[in-house]
Amino acid sequence: MPVAVVRPFTALWASQASSNLADGLLQAAAPLLVATLTRDPLVVAGMTVAQFLPWLLATLPAGALADRTDRRRILVAGNLLRAAGFALLALALALAGGWRHVALLYAAVFLAGCAETMVDNAALAVPPRLLPRAKLERANGRLFATQSLVHTFVGPPAGAALFALAASAAFFAGAAAFALAGLAALLLPALRPAGEKDGPGGPRRTTMTQDIRTGWTHFWRHDLLRRVAFISAAINFFGAATGGLLVLLITGPYAVPMAHYGLFVAVPAAGAIAGSLLAERVVPRIGGGPTTWLAALVPAAGYAVLGLGHGTPLALAAMFGAAFAGSLNQIVVSTLRQAAVPDALLGRVTAAYRLIVLGVVPLGALGGGLLGRHLGVRAVFLAAAAGLALAAVPLASRVTTRRLRDAETFPVGASPSDG
């Protein structure tokens, strides 16, 4: 019996790790390629638009697809589609010699983003089908820790090194990693939609639009899920507002040499990994409610430290703490969603949640850039500190450990007798 449980999750873990590695490789290679093509800030910023636009356009349909289709097929097809897209881009770079065009990269990144919405929504809905509730926090912790490790520590340095050898080499490597992710997903058991096994007498067929509406309605009417979504959205909004300007703050007022800037990427990543690995011990001790408060207030304090301070050690400590708290909250929210939402709706509700949480990223980045241009970089961090602290008061006040436990024990639409 243990083997039957472990092997499917191991396949999911391997698939996600390989996919995260590919994302890390391309996180370094794509901006480097843009920088060789143009120095126009607007064109460079277009990469962020191309990357996140699919989360606004395709997230809800991707969530509906995850509830209508075998989720294993989505993981396989989505990763293989990304592999094919970046392999073609790499081939074009290798064969075109000196000819390159940023539109080709935009197209590849946009299509990869569309595939990513399908893969990520499906992947987040898979663990409850493979593991019992008691193991979800540990499983989510392992998945998120692996994501932080390979996406931040392994992928970007390797992508930059490969790009230095040849631009096409980095994209070929990313394509290979996506292909491996698709092959690993083939080892998963069939993950057909709930109710499909009922045959001709099963549930009636609905349209994609009806499915999207049902999923969004379920999400919006679930007060607790809606609240944690807006908390995460606030964290992401102010994180995006400050994230793009961090390099200006650290290499400017803090006078840190560019060669040492990597510390300000590595240390938060280490905090995220530590939080993911320790979540199964920390969250039960302090409770999910206090974890939600910490996820907002610790980053808010960190922004204040960064905006007011000058010392590198204190700044790094603040960033480590913010990443640690954010990682704990990510696992609390993922576990809540997986335990509280019926499997037949999980893909659509996850998509609705991610639309709110990720849709604010471009807006936050734009807002931070405009504020920084007019008031200075430090002002952005101080505004983020105040804004996030104020947002936490109305949003986190009703997210208690008891409400989280009740929502996980008795999902919306289920009764205690449903087991």
Short description:
By secondary structure, the chain is mainly alpha-helical.
Structure commentary:
The chain is mainly alpha-helical and 419 residues long. It has helices at 2-37, 41-57, 59-68, 71-95, 102-124, 127-130, 136-165, 167-185, 208-221, 223-243, 246-251, 263-286, 288-308, 312-340, 343-359, 361-375, 377-396, 401-409. Helix 10 (223-243) packs parallel to helix 15 and helix 13 packs antiparallel against helix 17. The protein starts with a helix and ends in a 10-residue tail after the last helix. Mean pLDDT is 83; it is low at 1-6, 198-202 and 413-419.
Topology:
Blueprint: H1 2-37, H2 41-57, H3 59-68, H4 71-95, H5 102-124, H6 127-130, H7 136-165, H8 167-185, H9 208-221, H10 223-243, H11 246-251, H12 263-286, H13 288-308, H14 312-340, H15 343-359, H16 361-375, H17 377-396, H18 401-409
Helix pairs in contact: 1-5, 1-7, 1-8, 2-5, 2-15, 3-5, 3-9, 3-15, 4-5, 4-8, 5-15, 7-8, 7-12, 7-14, 9-15, 10-13, 10-14, 10-15, 10-16, 10-17, 12-14, 13-14, 13-17, 14-18, 16-17
